[in-house]
């Protein structure tokens, strides 16, 4: 909230201050402290993956060659045990454990925190379902001024509420506290989200994924295409932030592929 107010206090309208805040968070905090370290972990993981696969093949040959008296299920258990220990040691040595590979998820709290701040500023309903419901009943900040004034004396007024958001929009969405009646902003958010997911989930040529991973990828793409229908009642200020943040994340992904490419997948050792 303080960052948004500081940007707005320079005389910048909210229609520019909100996207700028999203870019600052994505490029000034998430990129250097989360995205770049996470990409370096991914690079090490790609390099070590063929070694892990080759080691598993070597262990399989060794177990099958030296334990001919054991049943196949028992030998398979021995192989899986060796494989698990080998992965643990290699991933720990190369610093690419599962929790390091999950670093990109650390950016989610930053996105949600700023989204929640903007939600309170535009006077939207609390919670995710509240934001999705948005102004479906036609209620905007302009229609809640009377309620807000009645709460001043009791101290219940949310100090985050900012009436200037009703007039500092632009183009067709001049009121950032109301939903976009043209549905252009929801379609923009849906399109950018689809492009980001499609780009981020692409695979190198020749690489196959499991059926579950393929199903998840297709599901996310379908969900992103239909996202506009779920967010059509969300206030324009939140959608403006959502579009700006997702576009900045997409730009960060392009930058990482340029400066820190993952490289081609190497065939496992035989």
From TrEMBL:
Keywords: Membrane, Transmembrane, Transmembrane helix
Classification via PANTHER family: CYTOCHROME C OXIDASE ASSEMBLY PROTEIN COX18, MITOCHONDRIAL, OXA1
Keyword Acyltransferase among UniProt keywords: no
Keyword Nuclease: no
Similarity-based family: Belongs to the OXA1/ALB3/YidC family.
Protein name: Uncharacterized protein
Transmembrane segments: 12-34, 183-203, 215-232
